[in-house]
Amino acid sequence: MRFANATLPDGSKRDVVAADGRIAAFAAQGDSAPSDDVDLGGALILPPLVDGHIHLDKTLLGLPWVPNQAAGNRVADRIEAERKVRAARTVPESETGANLVRQVIANGTLHMRSHVDIDNQLGLRNLHEILKVRERFRALATIQVVAFPQSGVLRSPGTADLLDAAVAEGADLVGGLDPVGIDGDLDGHLEVIFGIAEKRGVGLDIHLHDGGEAGIAELLAIAARTKAAGLAGKVAVSHAFALGSVALSTAAETADVLADAGVAIMSHGPGAATMPPLLLLRQHGVEVFGGSDNIRDAWSPFGNGDMLDRAMMIGYRANFRHDQELSVAYEMVTSAAARVLGLADYGLRVGGPADFVAVTAGSVAEAVATRPRRQLVVKAGRVLARDGVLVG
Amino acid sequence: MRFANATLPDGSKRDVVAADGRIAAFAAQGDSAPSDDVDLGGALILPPLVDGHIHLDKTLLGLPWVPNQAAGNRVADRIEAERKVRAARTVPESETGANLVRQVIANGTLHMRSHVDIDNQLGLRNLHEILKVRERFRALATIQVVAFPQSGVLRSPGTADLLDAAVAEGADLVGGLDPVGIDGDLDGHLEVIFGIAEKRGVGLDIHLHDGGEAGIAELLAIAARTKAAGLAGKVAVSHAFALGSVALSTAAETADVLADAGVAIMSHGPGAATMPPLLLLRQHGVEVFGGSDNIRDAWSPFGNGDMLDRAMMIGYRANFRHDQELSVAYEMVTSAAARVLGLADYGLRVGGPADFVAVTAGSVAEAVATRPRRQLVVKAGRVLARDGVLVG
After folding, report:
1. Distance between CA atoms of A140 and B362, rounded to whole angstroms?
2. What mean pLDDT value characterizes chain A?
3. Which of A176, A187, A193, B205 ranks highest by number of CB atoms within 10 Å?
4. Across the interface, do A321 and B301 touch by the CB < 8 Å criterion?
């Protein structure tokens, strides 16, 4: 199988030769023309997009429009509104989650990390629904699952045991949520979630919306526990708005601590919240990666699961303008996210998986800025989607 | 001509009957079925989108990708970088501007206000190029032109006379740019541009990036001069980041002054700059409207001229989530912008122009959040574009 006339991310023009689901060669163009050629017409090929933060159980995608019902703008208001939306659901999360997985695959995402709500009202129901989705799409996409205490850990008694049970039943990581802002107990919250992670031998991905110095203190505590537990490279903090709400010198000092501890930072390019200083974090050695966050759910009416659209949003919010900066946004939704997810078999290389996205753009920078048409999404040498629509 | 099976912005289901380029009736569905029916299939129809702030002369749309070359992140760095890009151009602004007008029309924008650079190096060259574009598309779209002193007025000697000449040659409004940040002379700058506006009997649209209390002082000075000159309703300030960088009480007091003077505020939903508090401004009676700002030019790699995409960005940055809030973003790119542009013949009503955009959405809120496919763009009862592509 030969995908002819590709432009590689480095700008070189090659044919991609696939065999047995893997990349056999990047051949000079025009070397041969077997009958099963696919002509990419000069399209840019990228490795599969990676969504480092999605909520497959929350989305209402595919249902008629559901207006946002939160009474106010606090995280607690939205948690409350989500309970109402959840109670009114007639379609299970496994169906709406599958709608979203189909859409993200059609847009070129083949690997994702989904947080799944767990609390003492829900129990493990959402987990079970999303494990069904993971199973259903196993051949097409990697779905990592984070056991996410959406209602807090301490303020929702019984959640700690549920998180532990979730990992036992198949969740890949333990989550957390604003230890101070939601649970009001930094050490108590972290003690529980790090305890489960250590006991079960898994990583953590912690939602942190808390801003200012309180948020910084939480980041430092997470870094300290990561080091103590020997979990370097297996812990991420999602959002970390605090890093964008303090002096750059404080952000830089915190970055050094995060880098030393091996804690990664996820940003989705928030709309109204403060943006972590991505370039500064990278300069200090912190792994930063991207994710969609909410998509058409009780939290947000926005989002579409398109990780080039998301890279654009991240770049726009981060004031990226130069090609080199746009490449950072691209890395955040490809290689950097792949490293955080621990994907061993990822990337465009001879011998690597014949997985790629072909887009109508001349360069990586142009792909981020313009969010072009996905001509093809290819997995193991097989075309999964064409022009943004799944095939077969 | 009957456009059957439309959903109106208020949710009602109607057929749109057009005659002689105007809306003859919103008829009950199924009343008749003449052979020239167009079936909208339930699509939502919106009045034409209005772009309140575009730079037709700056765009490089349609050319091969041009990396951003600014040496730094100051406005002055970008002005300097733009001079280099301009010097290296081989395609005239009338061509790239036309590329952009075609794209915005295909996305449903039929009215726009374009700033056009004028300084003592450029003279009126860009104005002449964009007046050609206005003439070329006269039958399809309204293009208002602002004579924009991109290099300042006082620091670019001779610009004052050029602005005056620009209005004499066809520019519709006089522009301005950071009287303090660029020219370092608030009264001197305003004296010149208000002087031309009064002499020529035109309005003003002033770029204001200056933040903090300095920016607020500039807004108050603009409001005072607007009142003194009797220009209420004919003056707009674009960006006004300052309103988002001061205490809400200061923003509210400033809003009262702006509303009283009849000064409108344009926001494009900036990426990294502070966002004016849109709802507060509206509550205090200020007209707020939307625009694209830079699109693939020396200033920004981003942008596509799609005003639903822009409404989404404005809503995302403003933390809009409820349907009522999303409707504000919609108004900013339709009726509010139409009022600011002084469009007398605008809006979906019997007797009004048979101009509309049909989109695949069930409601205005959904249209803003999802930026759906443009099924049809119709002007005077004639289909201009289908599925985002111009016809004929």
Report:
1. 31
2. 96
3. A176
4. yes
